[in-house]
């Protein structure tokens, strides 16, 4: 493996061991603390795949996989948070990357009924507009929500 990837792996591993490993059980039970989200942002993980000129880290695919792999080793929830935030930024490249990358603006994803195992509203797209009923809320402290109808994903404002 190239030296730069080894440096990245060691950096992420050191961060994960220092900042996440000791609280990983609490994270899985209580959620990711705001202070950790801000640290993830400061390390560049929340916008790992966003271009540098837009405020991201500009990692290529292998670098991004290394970040997710090392984070998931100590906390699957933290790795999923990083994955979902980067996924949102790929869907919304014109959104305020710096604000999201910092961890100050939260994003979340809503899943259809067959994933959530509960009642969720139907998502319909007509004439470029999304109509949906929100019955389940995963995290109410977010700025945007991604909706999926099983084949397409839509990121929308929480309003």
From TrEMBL:
SUPFAM superfamilies: Acyl-CoA dehydrogenase NM domain-like. This is TVG1372228 protein. One of its GO terms (molecular function) is acyl-CoA dehydrogenase activity. It holds the Pfam family Acyl-CoA_dh_N. Residues 3-84 form the Acyl-CoA dehydrogenase/oxidase N-terminal domain. Gene3D superfamilies: Acyl-CoA dehydrogenase/oxidase, N-terminal domain. InterPro entries: AcylCoA_DH/ox_N (IPR013786), AcylCoA_DH/ox_N_sf (IPR037069), AcylCoA_DH/oxidase_NM_dom_sf (IPR009100).
């Amino acid at each position: 493996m190239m030296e730069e990837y080894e440096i990245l792996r060691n950096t992420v591993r050191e961060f994960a061991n220092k900042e996440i490993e000791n609280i990983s059980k609490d994270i899985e039970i209580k959620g990711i603390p705001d202070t950790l989200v801000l640290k993830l942002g400061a390390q560049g993980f929340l916008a790992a795949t966003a271009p540098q000129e837009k405020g991201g880290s500009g990692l290529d695919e292998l670098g991004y996989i290394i970040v997710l792999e090392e984070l998931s080793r100590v906390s699957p929830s933290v790795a999923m948070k990083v994955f979902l935030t980067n996924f949102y930024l790929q869907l919304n490249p014109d959104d305020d990357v710096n604000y999201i990358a910092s961890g100050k603006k939260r994003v979340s994803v809503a899943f259809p009924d067959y994933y959530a195992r509960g009642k969720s509203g139907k998502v319909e797209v007509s004439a470029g507009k999304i109509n949906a009923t929100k019955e389940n809320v995963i995290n109410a402290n977010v700025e945007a929500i991604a909706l999926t109808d099983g084949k397409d994903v839509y990121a929308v404002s929480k309003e």
